[in-house]
Design goal:
Layout lengths: L21 H13 L4 E3 L14 E3 L3 E3 L9 E5 L6 E4 L5 E3 L3 E5 L7 E4 L2 E6 L6 H5 L3 E6 L6 E7 L11 E7 L1
Antiparallel strand pairs: 1-2, 2-3, 3-8, 4-7, 5-6, 5-8, 9-10, 11-12
GO molecular function, one term: alpha-1,4-glucosidase activity
Organism: Cottoperca gobio
Protein name: Neutral alpha-glucosidase C isoform X2
C-alpha cells in the first residue's frame, strides 16, 4: 500500500465495492431531488474535462473512470481543476488537478478519485437491503484541500417514512 498522504484520513481497501459508496449515492440522489443531476460526464462540467475513458463525476466529490474498452490495460484520466487536489480512494495517493494520468486497470478495479476539500461517507460493509445497511457503521473519508479544509453532506434515511420527514442532509466541516 502506498504511503498515506497527510490530506486523507482513511484509505479505502481494494475489496470495497460499489455497495460501500451507497451513502455518498444517497447524498447525490437527495441533491438531485432538489437541484440537478446525480452523476454526469466530466465533459459536461467543463469543455476540457472530457477524457477518452468517459469519466463520471458524482456529487462533485467523486470521479469514477470506468474501463469501457475490451482488454484495456490502462485508462487515461484527466483530473479537473489545475488548482485542485485529487486522491486515489484506494491508495490515498495525492495528485494535482489539471493533469492527465495513465493508470493500469483490471476488470475488477475502476479508478476512483476523491476531490480535495470533500467529505465522503461510506458504509463499512454491505447489506441486501436498506434496513441491513442502516445497521452498519459509517466510515467518513476527509480529503483536505490545499488550505486544509473539507466539507460535505450526509443524508440519513430512516427507511420507513414517506412524508419527506426522512430527508436529512447535514453539513460536515473539517479544518
Amino acid at each position: 500500500m502506498a504511503e498515506v498522504s497527510q490530506h486523507v484520513i482513511r484509505v479505502v481497501p481494494e475489496d470495497e465495492g460499489k455497495e460501500k459508496f451507497k451513502k455518498s449515492g444517497h447524498v447525490a440522489f437527495y441533491r438531485y431531488s432538489v437541484s440537478g443531476t446525480v452523476c454526469c460526464p466530466t465533459g459536461t462540467l467543463c469543455s476540457t474535462c472530457l477524457t477518452p475513458a468517459g469519466c463520471l463525476q458524482s456529487g462533485g466529490a467523486l470521479l469514477a473512470c470506468p474501463v469501457t474498452e475490451a482488454r484495456a490495460q490502462e485508462v487515461k484520466v484527466l483530473l479537473p481543476g489545475s488548482d485542485e487536489v485529487w486522491f486515489d480512494v484506494r491508495s490515498a495517493e495525492e495528485y494535482e488537478g489539471g493533469r492527465t494520468l495513465s493508470l493500469p486497470v483490471a476488470l475488477h478495479l475502476v479508478p476512483v478519485f476523491q476531490r480535495g476539500g470533500s467529505v465522503v461517507c461510506r458504509s463499512t460493509g454491505s447489506g441486501s437491503c436498506t434496513a441491513e445497511q442502516q445497521q452498519l457503521p459509517l466510515s467518513i473519508t476527509v480529503a483536505l484541500d490545499s488550505q486544509g479544509v473539507a466539507d460535505g453532506e450526509l443524508y440519513l434515511d430512516d427507511g420507513y417514512r414517506d412524508k419527506k420527514a426522512f430527508c436529512c442532509a447535514g453539513r460536515i466541516h473539517h479544518t
